[in-house]
């Protein structure tokens, strides 16, 4: 289980972030919705000062290991990302059949509140407690990367992490550029390989 450090947010620290959809609605089941997240992450990497170390998009949540460059604030990036993706996702929902369109929009309008007036619908809940990660510690980074990369395996979407397109597992496991531009911290790939070797040794030892 991952340790959580409840401390004031460092706007330039590296964090493990979990963004969940409102009511855990399974928004990201179609490529059109998934690509909105992918394109937005890449846009923020290229133009908004976001540094992504790892990510994994599931049907109703996004795992993200990231930090902000020195000239921007992580809080501003997070707010802008949620707002932009919400707008694009809701635009895409309007192209859905009326029954599904109405159901999903009702879910996303609810958090704004009855007397919110000008507030627009949003598809994301408030970000869960961010977990601070020491970027200079390859083992710590590897632990969190393994956690998010194994999410699709635990939910039996794929057999192996690298088989899942909507994560950074392919970047780290196969050395293939994935869908989102990531930055690989020094020593992390070696730490991930060491973790896999330890697991393999454990299986061999106790499955004889």
**Order of adjacent strands in the largest pleated sheet:** 2-3-1-4
Strand content: 5-15%
Mean pLDDT, nearest integer? 87
What is the number of helical segments per DSSP (H or I, 4+ residues)?
Answer: 7
Secondary-structure-derived class: alpha+beta
Q: What share of the residues lie within helices?
A: 40-55%
What CATH calls the topology is Alpha-Beta Plaits
Specify the CATH class. Answer: Alpha Beta
Main β-sheet: number of strands, strand sense, barrel status? 4 strands, antiparallel
CATH architecture: 2-Layer Sandwich
Rounded to the nearest angstrom, the distance between the terminal CA atoms is: 27 Å
Q: Label the overall shape.
A: globular
Note poorly predicted spans. none
In short:
The protein has about 210 residues and is an alpha+beta fold.
